[in-house]
Design a protein that fits this description.
591 residues, alpha/beta, disordered N terminus
C-alpha cells in the first residue's frame, strides 16, 4: 500500500532578478505558468540558490528503499515552490557504493538502481521547465576499481600502457612486499594497495578508488568527453569533487608521511593543490565556453589559504570555489563578520562570486552543531565529540540549535553571492546519531577501529538519512518500502507534511526567505551597519535599502526602525512598545 504524499502546492509568485552586468533571469516559479523559459544569462550562477540532492536519500520512486531519478522528478513541484534556482546532484553514476557513489564505474551512465539515461533526460527537461537549472557532481581524482580502465590495467600487467592511466608503483623491500610509501588514505588504512602481480596502486581515499594519472593525455581527453556528454544532455554546471588533488608529482624516491606533513601547500606539494592543476581546469573552461550559456563549475578545494582557493575560482578555470568557513565557524558575531569580509574581498580579487554553505553531505547538520558547546578555536570538527559519544541528549540543546540554525540561514541568504543548501535543512533536520553499527554505510566507519575512531572514522551516514515527506508510512513517505538508512521516530514531526502550511515551520521560513531574496536581490555588495553592529549583533545593508540584522547573543536588543519583512523567530515587544530582536534571531528590514 502506498503512503500518502503532500499535496502539490501552487507555484509561489516571484520577481525576476538581474545580476550585475546580465540580462533579466526568469525565476523558478513564475506565477501563472506551467513552464518557465530559462534565459541564456551567462551569470545566472553568481547569486543563485543551489539545492544539493543526495539522490539515494531524497525520494524513492521505485519502492526499493533507495532514492532515484523517478523520485526526484516526482518532487520537482516541491523544489519549485521552495524557490531554488538550481539543484546539484551528488553522484548518480554506476557504483558499488564503496564511498556513497563517489567510486564511479562509468562516468557516462546512470546507476540502474537510480534510473536510466532516459530518465535523466526527462528529469533535466522537467527541471528546466520549472525554471530550475541542473548541476551534477563530477569525480575526477579517482575512478572505482570496477571501471573498465582499471580492469584493463590489472589484466595488462606492469609496464603496460593501460597501467599508465593510473598510478602504479613497484613496492619496497627485497621482493616488493612493502608499499612504495607509508602514506595513509583519507579513510584510514594504507594509501597503497598491492595487486596480484606485486605492483601497488595509489588511492587517496578508499582502496576501491584508484587515483587517475592526470599526466596521461587519455585521462584528460576522456574527461573532456564526459563534460560534453552531460552538457549536451542539459547539464548547466559541475561540482568538482576534491578539485585540489588531480595534479601530482611523484619522484622516484617518495617522501614519508612525516615529510609530507611538513611540506608547504604553496603549489609545490607533491599531492595537494599543485599549480599544474589549473592547466587542467583551463582545458575544462574551453569546453564550458562551447555552450550558450557557458557551463559553470564550482570547486570543492580544501586548500591552505583563501589565496590558494581563489585560483580555482578564476574565470579562466572553474569559475567558482566553495568556501566552507561559515560551515566550520561557531555561531558568533565576530567570526561571521570576519569570514564574510574576507571572502567578499577575495571574490572581488578573482572576479568570481562568493559561495556560502552551512550544511552538506559530509558534515554534521548545522541545527545540531549550533546546539552543542562552541569549539572556541579547537581543531576538531564541530559535532565530532557529540557524535563519537553516541549523540547523548544531555549534551545538546536541540531547540537552541534549531533557533540558531534558522537565524544563520537567514543571515546566509542575505549575503551577496550564491547560497548552497543541503536537502532537509529546510525542514530544520537535526543529525541522526542513532544508527546501529551494522547498518552504517560510510567506508570511513569500517576502516577504523573503535579504539582510534575519530569523527571521520565514525562516518557521514547521519546526514545522509533519507528525507521524511509524510508523518507516517514505512519510510515517512520517502518510498513505499523502507529506507536504506534507518529513520528515527521524531522524523514524523519534521516531515514535509507536518511543516507544510504551518506559518511557524522552518519550511515556511525557507520558502518565504527565498521568495524575498529574489525580490530584494541587487548588486553583489554589502556595507556593515556600524551603528547597529555592536557586541553580539551584526547588521548588514544590501543595495536597495534593506537590512539584515542578527542577534548572536541571548538577550533581546532594540530593532532598528523600518518595515520588518521577515524574521527567523517571533519578535518581542519592549517596555515602550518598540520591537525587540530576541537572541539567536535574524530579521530582514526595509528602512
Amino acid at each position: 500500500m502506498s503512503t500518502p504524499t503532500p499535496s502539490s502546492p501552487a507555484p509561489a509568485e516571484t520577481t525576476a532578478v538581474t545580476a550585475p552586468g546580465s540580462t533579466a533571469a526568469t525565476g523558478p516559479a513564475a506565477a501563472g505558468s506551467d513552464a518557465v523559459e530559462l534565459t541564456a544569462d551567462p551569470t545566472w550562477w553568481r547569486q543563485a540558490v543551489v539545492y544539493q540532492i543526495y539522490p539515494r536519500s531524497f525520494a524513492d520512486g521505485s519502492g526499493d528503499g533507495i532514492g532515484d531519478l523517478r523520485g526526484i522528478i516526482s518532487r520537482i513541484p516541491y523544489l519549485r515552490r521552495l524557490g531554488v534556482d538550481a539543484v546539484w546532484l551528488s553522484p548518480f553514476y554506476p557504483s558499488a557504493l564503496a564511498d556513497g557513489g563517489y567510486d564511479v564505474d562509468d562516468y557516462r551512465d546512470v546507476d540502474p538502481r537510480i534510473g536510466t539515461l532516459e530518465e535523466f533526460d526527462e528529469m533535466s527537461r522537467a527541471l528546466h521547465e520549472a525554471g530550475i537549472r541542473l548541476i551534477v557532481d563530477i569525480v575526477p581524482n579517482h575512478s572505482s576499481n570496477r571501471h573498465a580502465w582499471f580492469r584493463e590495467a590489472l589484466a595488462a600487467g606492469p609496464g603496460s600502457p593501460e597501467r599508465e592511466r593510473y598510478i602504479f608503483r613497484d613496492g619496497l623491500g627485497e621482493h616488493g612486499e612493502l608499499p612504495p610509501a607509508d602514506w595513509t588514505s583519507a579513510f584510514g588504512g594504507p594509501a597503497w594497495t598491492q595487486v596480484e602481480d606485486g605492483q601497488w596502486y595509489l588511492h587517496t581515499f578508499a582502496r576501491e578508488q584508484p587515483d587517475f594519472n592526470w599526466d596521461h593525455p587519455e585521462v584528460r581527453e576522456d574527461f573532456l568527453t564526459t563534460l560534453r556528454f552531460w552538457s549536451d544532455r542539459g547539464v548547466d554546471g559541475f561540482r568538482v569533487d576534491v578539485a585540489q588533488c588531480l595534479a601530482k608529482h611523484l619522484a622516484e624516491d617518495l617522501p614519508s608521511s612525516a615529510e609530507l606533513a611538513e611540506m608547504p601547500q604553496d603549489g609545490t606539494h607533491p599531492l595537494v593543490d599543485r599549480d599544474e592543476v589549473h592547466e587542467i581546469y583551463a582545458e575544462w573552461r574551453r569546453v564550458f565556453e562551447e555552450y550558450t550559456p557557458p557551463r559553470t563549475a564550482v570547486a570543492e578545494a580544501w586548500v591552505s589559504s583563501p589565496e590558494r582557493r581563489a585560483k580555482y575560482a578564476s574565470p579562466r578555470g572553474l569559475g567558482q570555489a566553495f568556501n566552507f568557513d561559515l560551515l566550520t565557524a561557531d555561531f558568533e558575531a565576530d567570526a561571521f563578520r570576519r569570514i564574510v569580509t574576507d571572502n567578499l574581498r577575495q571574490s572581488a580579487t578573482t572576479g568570481s562570486s562568493s559561495t556560502w554553505v552551512l550544511s552538506n553531505h559530509d558534515v554534521v547538520r548545522h541545527a545540531t552543531r549550533y546546539g552543542l558547546p562552541p569549539l572556541q578555536g579547537r581543531e576538531v570538527k564541530q559535532g565530532a565529540e557529540w557524535i563519537i559519544a553516541g549523540g547523548p541528549e544531555e549534551g545538546i540543546d536541540r531547540e537552541l540549535g534549531l533557533r540558531r540554525a534558522r537565524a544563520a540561514t537567514l543571515f546566509e541568504l542575505a549575503l551577496p553571492g550564491s547560497a548552497y543548501l543541503y536537502q532537509g535543512e529546510e525542514l530544520g533536520l537535526h543529525e541522526v546519531a542513532e544508527i546501529p553499527d551494522e547498518q552504517r554505510q560510510d567506508p570511513a566507519f569500517w576502516r577504523t577501529t573503535a579504539e582510534d575512531r575519530s569523527f571521520d572514522g565514525l562516518g557521514r551516514d547521519g546526514t545522509r538519512v533519507p528525507l521524511p515527506w509524510t508523518r507516517e508510512g514505512s519510510s515517512f513517505g520517502f518510498g513505499t518500502d523502507g529506507a536504506h538508512l534507518p529513520q528515527p521516530a521524531w522524523f514524523a514531526d519534521v516531515s514535509v507534511e507536518a511543516e507544510d502550511g504551518d506559518p511557524a515551520s522552518t519550511l515556511t521560513l525557507y520558502r518565504e526567505a527565498l521568495r524575498l531574496r529574489r525580490t530584494l536581490q541587487g548588486a553583489e555588495e554589502l556595507t556593515w551597519d556600524e551603528e547597529h553592529s555592536t557586541g553580539d549583533v551584526l547588521a548588514l545593508v544590501r543595495p536597495g535599502g534593506w537590512t539584515s540584522i542578527t542577534n548572536f547573543g541571548d538577550a533581546p536588543v532594540p530593532l532598528p526602525a523600518g518595515e520588518v519583512l521577515l524574521s527567523s523567530a517571533p519578535l518581542e515587544e519592549g517596555p515602550d512598545g518598540a520591537p525587540l530582536l530576541p537572541g539567536a534571531t535574524t530579521a530582514w528590514l526595509r528602512r
